[in-house]
TrEMBL record:
The keyword Membrane applies. One of its GO terms (molecular function) is ATP binding. It comes from Paenibacillus haidiansis. Keywords: ATP-binding, Cell membrane, Membrane, Nucleotide-binding, Translocase, Transport. InterPro entries: AAA+_ATPase, ABC_transporter-like_ATP-bd, ABC_transporter-like_CS, MetN_ABC_transporter-like, P-loop_NTPase. It comes from the Bacteria. Coiled coil: none annotated. The keyword Transport applies. This is ATP-binding cassette domain-containing protein. Residues 2-243 form the ABC transporter domain.
Length: 244
């Protein structure tokens, strides 16, 4: 179980509460859609949950192990288990999909490995296995700059898994993608939850959250206003977080 108690995030020189005392708990294997109007704090919430932002206050526990107490960012031990997927993944455009999966992001591997791409054979096979699972084996030796948006997102997911992520926070991962590519990315994320017990929290449009997610959080002005499992939102619920 992952538990969040009174997550608070101050911005603008600690003058404004961007996230306001959020408390929630969830289990491995859940795919959670975060919905809400622009400026509601969705991206900031994802970055805090993925330990990419320092909390101003609050506690964060995983399976009764304290990750954050009274604010802070969490140790590297826990950050390495989290992945944050941006709208446009930060891949190295002149390196192949395989190299991007292997060398990861700054902070995940040694400087030497990032620069040279030197890897162990078991790392290589693990990366190829992940690319194959997500239909990218034929793209392994294609430079990332030549991949489609959906392919880049799936490469970023493979990279996260190879580097040990059990928790994935995805910030509008299908924005700008065609419907077929968006469906493939979301099905990939959903399969990670259902088949591997990963936890995915993704900021999504309401119609996609209702279609793909097992649970929906509604955020407005930095507050968690809705927490709904296993069904679509009612019209009243959508109004409560300014979605209609």
């Amino acid at each position: 179980m992952i538990k969040v108690d009174h997550l608070t995030k101050m911005v603008d020189g600690n003058k404004k509460e961007a996230l306001r005392g959020i408390s929630v708990q969830f289990e491995p294997g859940e795919m959670i859609g975060v919905v809400g109007p622009s400026g509601s704090g969705k991206s900031l919430l994802l970055r805090c949950l993925a330990l990419r932002e320092k909390w101003s206050a609050g506690e964060y526990t995983w399976e009764d192990k304290m990750v954050i107490r009274g604010g802070g960012k969490g140790s590297q031990k826990y950050r390495s288990q989290c992945a944050y997927l941006e709208q446009n993944p930060s891949l190295y455009p002149d390196k192949t999909a395989l190299k991007n999966v292997l060398i990861g992001q700054a902070g995940q591997t040694s400087a030497l490995r990032r620069v040279t791409g030197m890897v162990r054979s078991d790392d290589y096979m693990g990366a190829m296995d992940e690319l194959e699972k997500f239909g990218l084996l034929d793209k392994a030796h294609v430079k990332a700059g030549k991949l489609s948006g959906g392919e880049r997102q799936r490469v970023a997911i493979c990279r996260a898994l190879v580097h040990g992520a059990n928790f994935i926070a995805a910030d509008e991962p299908v924005v700008g993608l065609d419907p077929h590519s968006a469906e493939r990315v979301l099905n990939t994320l959903r399969s990670l939850c259902a088949e591997q017990g990963k936890t995915v929290v993704a900021a999504l449009p309401i119609e996609l959250a209702e279609r793909y997610c097992t649970r929906i959080w509604g955020l407005e002005e930095g507050k968690l206003k809705l927490d709904v499992t296993g069904r679509r939102l009612t019209a009243a619920e959508k109004r409560s977080v300014d979605l209609v």
